[in-house]
Amino acid sequence: xxxxxxxxxxxxxxxxxxxxxxxxxxxxxxxxxxxxxxxxxxxxxxxxxxxxxxxxxxxxxxxxxxxxxxxxxxxxxxxxxxxxxxxxxxxxxxxxxxxxxxxxxxxxxxxxxxxxxxxxxxxxxxxxxxxxxxxxxxxxxxxxxxxxxxxxxxxxxxxxxxxxxxxxxxxxxxxxxxxxxxxxxxxxxxxxxxxxxxxxxxxxxxxxxxxxxxxxxxxxxxxxxxxxxxxxxxxxxxxxxxxxxxxxxxxxxxxxxxxxxxxxxxxxxxxxxxxxxxxxxxxxxxxxxxxxxxxxxxxxxxxxxxxxxxxxxxxxxxxxxxxxxxxxxxxxxxxxxxxxxxxxxxxxxxxxxxxxxxxxxxxxxxxxxxxxxxxxxxxxxxxxxxxxxxxxxxxxxxxxxxxxxxxxxxxxxxxxxxxxxxxxxxxxxxxxxxxxxxxxxxxxxxxxxxxxxxxxxxxxxxxxxxxxxxxxxxxxxxxxxxxxxxxxxxxxxxxxxxxxxxxxxxxxxxxxxxxxxxxxxxxxxxxxxxxxxxxxxxxxxxxxxxxxxxxxxxxxxxxxxxxxxxxxxxxxxxxxxxxxxxxxxxxxxxxxxxxxxxxxxxxxxxxxxxxxxxxxxxxxxxxxxxxxxxxxxxxxxxxxxxxxxxxxxxxxxxxxxxxxxx
Length: 662
Known about the structure:
The protein has 28 helices and 17 strands. By secondary structure, it is of the alpha/beta class. Strand 10, helix 23 and strand 11 form a beta-alpha-beta unit.
């Protein structure tokens, strides 16, 4: 009998009553009947043994078939919310693989089941409580109050730990899901594994605080790593100060980091002028051995280049000019005798530089500054106006103290760090930006840090500094995506950066970048995708394109009857037809992405491997034990799920109280 025959298809699809159990009961009654005949000596022993054996074999065969249907239907009730301790995750963590979660590989057979399932209502395949109890799944199924379609994770009988090689994630991982769908849960699991492996971990969380920070702190404490460095945009005494301009290879890198704060959709011409203006000031500061900072660059952009130009010329005159340089330079300045007596000292220095200093001694910082000096002041003010909101964000209140730290301030004892320090010391850095309080400031800070990291990655690749794996995690990436982040996605793997980004919808990315094409370009640079619940049409379209297609079998059955007594002789005709065809369909229909339960997702990784997975919520086993030991023994016993949920609520309350106290 063919594997795609009607019988086998009917047996493989568990969306029906287990009629085989009725047959099993019938065979059991037959066995009892013939056993009775043997006891009454109506049939002889040899016949009784043959008939009894045949009835018993048929009984067990039909019982197995019916039981398989019940078990398969029980899995369609799904799985409830799962919890897992960090200690258990440590045992699961592999140094060369990423643990994705609990689930199974999605195959065309699962797609066929899903399409067939869509033909029935939930009542058609749901089991009663007795049947669920008999199959042993009454306590682990999804509650009716939970969100999503439980059957999506039940199309496979059972689940297992799913691992993929870390090498596959050099091309980046994108996590997409709506609010409360489980992005933070999966992201927290991935971050915890990176900490356990001993990698450099840099997490950018625009919202900040909450469960993710708690997971990072707990994991570091359990595995014995240094306490994580916490960076916040408010005046938190526990925050570190991070200087994104501390290390650089050229003035252009400094300009790129500051210009990265401008929205990606801003006008290209104004961005180019703004970049040139910042680059000119940065060149001058470097030439004068003044450490560039956002604060000093803003000051000289606003006040003009004259002061820095004069200082650079003074340095050059001291080394290269002859004692009579003033008289020689004055000869080239036009004006009356009185005007020449009161000539601007800077103008005199410029005259000497342009007319007497040998061109072999001309230097680029002064050349760039002279272009600004000779430029129309009015026009220069217009082209640098686009930098006003950039510096307003970066030097906003407390932000100025932590992103442009004053190393000589005796009152501020908070440590000053840089990203190269974090990488060299293999530390864990958590950047909490508080976007709910000030979204624009959070975006500006994240943009500069991503630009700094892109520069660091470039230097590491150029100097061939390997051996250190840098895991970058960016939540709500649509708020902070910029050109440097796209460069990290394109080439970060060459500098040892493994990037994981999370967002809610493609529409958010489109709004940030200004076009659907630009948003798709970012998604195209991410080789792996995790799809949680989403209702956005554009996002679901991207999912269906990414996951691919398969052939789905469709069966059309028709019946026809015809009665005819025209000839005087009554006649009756009947016919039946059975037509099977295959059509190429989405391997996962788009509407099911909006039906995923919390913390469940589809994953397309490793160049086409497709999985259906769920991610457990991480808790600390020690906290759970402490919470459980405080329970009153006189109270009625609770189930394990109830105790874990209560422990998790207490942990969240404790985290909120600590945050309020801080």
